[in-house]
Amino acid sequence: SSGINAEWPLRPGTSLPSFLHCSVTSLLSFLHRSVTSLPSFLHRSVTSLPSFLHCSVTSLLSFLHRSVTSLPSFLHRSVTSLPSFLHRCVTSLLSFPHRSVTSL
Predict the structure, then answer these.
(1) How far, in Å, CA of 81 to CA of 21, rounded?
(2) How many CB atoms lie within 10 A of CB 19?
(3) CA 1 and chain centroid, separation
(4) Do the Cβ atoms of 10 and 19 come closer than 8 Å?
(5) CB-based contacts of 10: which residues, under 8 Å, 6+ apart?
(6) Whose C-alpha in 21, 28, 81, 102 is 20 to 30 A from the C-alpha of 12?
């Protein structure tokens, strides 16, 4: 048959009361498992929070320390290499017209 039977989520021969009973039983079982596992979940979350915070703060402080201690070296390298970089740029720009003309 077509119509509602083709779209009905029940197996042939399953009655509506049986379907509702199965659905309500599954829902109650799910809720029971959720409620009974909640204290354990909360306990694990609360007990692991200090470790998580310690690890996060330690990692952040380590990152900041490395950043601050490497900053002078980074700035020194940048400043000392700037003249060489600028010289290469200017040399390249000045030789560009010559290369363009000779390649024609």
Answers:
(1) 78
(2) 14
(3) 50
(4) yes
(5) 16, 19
(6) 28
Tokens of 21: 């009973």
Question: What are 2-55's pLDDT values in tens digits?
Answer: 444 444 555 666 677 888 888 999 999 999 999 999 999 999 999 999 999 999
Tell me, what amino acid is at 83? P
Q: And the tokens for 102? A: 């000779």
For tokens 């400043």, what's the residue? 79
What's the predicted TM-score (pTM) here? Answer: 0.43
pLDDT digits (tens, 9 = 90+) for 69-84: 999 999 999 999 999 9
What is the number of alpha carbons within 13 Å of residue 46 lying toward its C-beta? 6
